Each structure stands twice: as C-alpha cells, then as structure tokens.
Amino acid sequence: ASTVNPFSIHAFSFFINSTYFAHGIYGVKKASNFYFNKDPNKLNYQESCLLAGIVNGPNIYSPFIDYNASIKKMKSTAYTLLKNDVIEKDYSYYNDEVNSEKKMLKRKNLK
Questions:
Q1: How many CA atoms, within 13 angstroms, populate the side-chain half-sphere of residue 35?
Q2: Which of 6, 37, 58, 71: CA 20 to 30 A from 52?
Q3: CA-CA distance, 61 to 69, in Å (whole number)?
Q4: Residues contacting residue 69 through CB under 8 Å, at least 6 positions apart
C-alpha cells in the first residue's frame, strides 16, 4: 500500500489556497463562492472543471472575461479527467453543464 507524504498534502493545500482565479480572487474557497456562490464541497463536476481551467490562465479563462474560452477550457478539463479515469461519463456532464452556466450567469447578473 502506498502512503501519502504529509508534505505533499501540505504543499497541495498551500497551492490550491493561494492560487489566483482572476478578479482579485485567491484560493479555491473564495473562487467557488465568487463564481458559484457555494463552498467547494458543494460544486458539481462542471463547476469544478471550470475552476480548474481558470488556474491555467485566470485572465483568459474567467467566464467574466471570456465566457466562450472559459467554457471551452472547462470542457477540455472535463475531457482530460474523463480520459484519465478521474471521473466517469455517467456524471451527466452535458446535462448539468447548462444548469451550471445559467446559475453562474444569474449570480453575476450577466444574463
């Protein structure tokens, strides 16, 4: 059985809690609340993929900067996770996607 290095857990925790998500937002909890008005443990796969995609280029992939680029990156992230058996196709990615997008747009009064 493999063991997890406590340092790697600490390093990951530091990374995810200090990562920039655009709009002056640092950390996954603040980003989750900013973009979706909920805590990270309440995010669905699509919302999680959107946040993961933002990390690659916050000023490019924020849906409030370039909505189309953000959705394209979200889908690319989801595909990579699916391809690497991190998530299963059963999670209704395309069914939930529209609802997630509508909630986000409503939250920011962009629609």
A1: 35
A2: 6
A3: 6
A4: 60, 61
Residue 3: C-alpha distances to residues 7, 8, 44, 80 (Å) = 12, 11, 28, 25
CA separation for the pair 111, 104 (Å, rounded): 9
Rounded-to-integer distance, Cα 102 and Cα 26, Å: 24
Instruction: Say how many C-beta atoms besides its own lie within 10 A of residue 13's C-beta.
Output: 11
Q: What angle do CA 59, 62, 36 make, to 5 degrees?
A: 145
List, in order, residues 6 or more apart from 12 with CB less than 8 Å away: none
pLDDT digits (tens, 9 = 90+) for 12-51: 777 788 999 999 999 999 999 999 999 999 998 889 999 9
What's the predicted TM-score (pTM) here?
0.73
How far is the C-alpha of 12 from the C-alpha of 19, rounded, in Å?
10
